[in-house]
Specification:
Elements lengths: L6 E3 L4 E4 L2 E3 L7 E2 L8 E5 L2 E5 L13 E6 L2 E6 L2 E5 L13 E2 L7 E4 L5 E4 L13 E2 L7 E4 L5 E4 L13 E2 L7 E5 L2 E5 L13 E2 L6 E5 L5 E5 L4 E3 L1
Antiparallel strand pairs: 1-2, 2-3, 4-5, 5-6, 7-8, 8-9, 10-11, 11-12, 13-14, 14-15, 16-17, 17-18, 19-20, 20-21, 21-22
């Protein structure tokens, strides 16, 4: 059975495929959908674990929480802390974190027990020596991080600053541009950290096919182009 054909019925914590109920002998108190390579996190009265497309447990352990597989690793929470397991249910590394996210682009955001954020590789090793007040997921090779002054910038997978510029808020790059906020409001920047137009908005979304939804300082909802053209809605 292909995991892509399995649907999660969130209200009942059951699974189905082609209109037929699956795993009828299983009673899950919570469940999340299937992810590649074909496993789903579920919980019964003993705790959380992962099942395959036949409803069989991948391993014998149960956790406080278990999450989906990304890059063939899944985050789990135990009494020792949060960490990642592989498809055999084995811990990928010995470190235990206060929190960890999901792997994206073979890199994962973690928060250590001192409250510091940084990124680890597939083996659990830090990607760089720096620590941040916050760090987000990687997308298209770059991630947002926040320093002790609550300012954001972009870093690459080696921890190198992309453009040496810091902002009050910052989004990930999407089709070559990222949303950013300074003291005057929201706008878009390029890979050099430069504004691509002079407008400022109270909110702005990423570009889709050359235009982005935004709200101006008067509360009017508009769209703005990559060239800074404004179109009223």
């Amino acid at each position: 059975m292909n995991y892509r054909d399995i649907q999660l019925n969130e209200f009942t914590n059951t699974f189905s495929s082609g209109g037929h109920d699956l795993f009828k002998d299983k009673k899950f108190v919570a469940a999340l959908k299937f992810h590649a390579p074909g496993f789903a996190p579920v919980a019964d009265s003993e705790g959380w674990y992962h099942i395959d497309v036949f409803g069989q447990a991948l391993y014998s352990e149960h956790y406080q929480r278990a999450f989906g597989f990304y890059d063939n690793r899944a985050a789990v929470i135990s009494d020792e802390g949060t960490f990642h397991i592989d498809e055999m249910g084995k811990a990928v590394y010995s470190e235990r974190f206060e929190w960890c996210g999901n792997y994206q682009e073979e890199i994962c955001t973690v928060r250590n027990k001192n409250g510091n954020y940084y990124h680890i590789d597939l083996t659990g090793q830090p990607c760089y020596p720096d620590k941040y007040k916050y760090a987000g997921d990687f997308k298209y090779g770059f991630a947002c991080v926040m320093n002790a002054d609550n300012r954001f910038t972009h870093i690459d997978k080696n921890g190198k600053l992309l453009h040496q510029k810091w902002f009050l808020d910052l989004g990930v790059f999407h089709k070559g541009y990222a949303t950013a906020r300074d003291e005057a409001g929201w706008f878009h920047i390029n890979f050099l950290g430069e504004e691509i137009y002079s407008h400022r908005f109270t909110q702005v979304e990423p570009f889709y096919n050359g235009w982005a939804f935004a709200e101006d300082t008067c509360g009017e909802r508009i769209t703005v182009s990559e060239m800074g053209m404004i179109r009223e809605l």
